[in-house]
Amino acid sequence: MAKLVQAIAAGLLATCIGQAHADDRPACERFDWPLAIERSWFEAADLPPVETGATLSAMPAKGVSLKLKPAAEVKLAAAASRPTKLESPKSGIVTFEASAAGLYQVTNSAAGWLDVVQGGVVVAAESHTGNRECAGLRKSVRFNLTPGPVSIQVTGASVDTIAAGVRRVE
User: Fold this and answer.
1) CB 150 within 8 A of CB 98
2) In angstroms, rounded to a whole number, what is the distance separating the alpha carbons of residues 109 and 106?
3) What share of the chain is helix, strand, coil (3-state, %, to 5)?
4) Rama region for 95: left / alpha / beta (φ>0; ψ in -120 to 50; rest)
5) Helices H, strands E: what count in the chain?
């Protein structure tokens, strides 16, 4: 019995040590996929400001700084897929043209619910990753999109602006 207890204790210790090493990575490296590109975009001084409701011919290569408004003032492309818990939430939407079909990664800088809408329908996410401890990066979500207009909408935010970037995943 003593040997069994020792074996269990050794296994638990090994697991804890392994988890401690995995958590030693800096906060901004604890996403499920690399976001160094988006982080550099969002830290750049030339991130173009975009008003909520704007329609762009294409998403700028380095993303945008989306100006949010009180939720009641924003006309979304589709109802948000998740209700907000905030008393005075902010929302924003930007529409751009996707040039090709494929897997796209949409990343934002701060807390807020992220939906992607095509053809008036919220597109189901393929996968997502998030981290509350990384300053300037909050969430990245992957969607399969087709060519044509795509709306990115942020709801339930508490900030006035949010950096958002889109890139095709190869």
Assistant:
1) yes
2) 11
3) 20, 40, 40
4) beta
5) 2, 12
* The token pair that represents 66 in the structure block: 């989306």
pLDDT for the residue 6: 58
pLDDT tens track for 92-151: 999 999 999 999 999 999 999 999 999 999 999 999 999 999 988 999 999 999 999 999
64-67/161-168 β-pairing: antiparallel
pLDDT tens string 32-53:
999 999 999 999 888 999 999 9
Taking the CA atoms of residue 65, residue 78, residue 98 and residue 123 in that order, the dihedral angle to the nearest 10 degrees is: 110
Of the pLDDT bands very low, low, confident and very high (cuts 50, 70, 90), residue 90 is very high
Residues 6 or more apart whose CB falls under 8 angstroms from that of 153 comprise 76, 77, 78, 80, 91, 92, 93, 114, 115, 116, 117
E strands in 10-168? 49-51, 54-55, 64-67, 69-70, 90-98, 102-108, 113-118, 121-122, 127-130, 139-145, 148-157, 161-168
Q: What stretches of 40-125 adopt beta strand conformation (E)? A: 49-51, 54-55, 64-67, 69-70, 90-98, 102-108, 113-118, 121-122
Mean pLDDT of the chain: 88
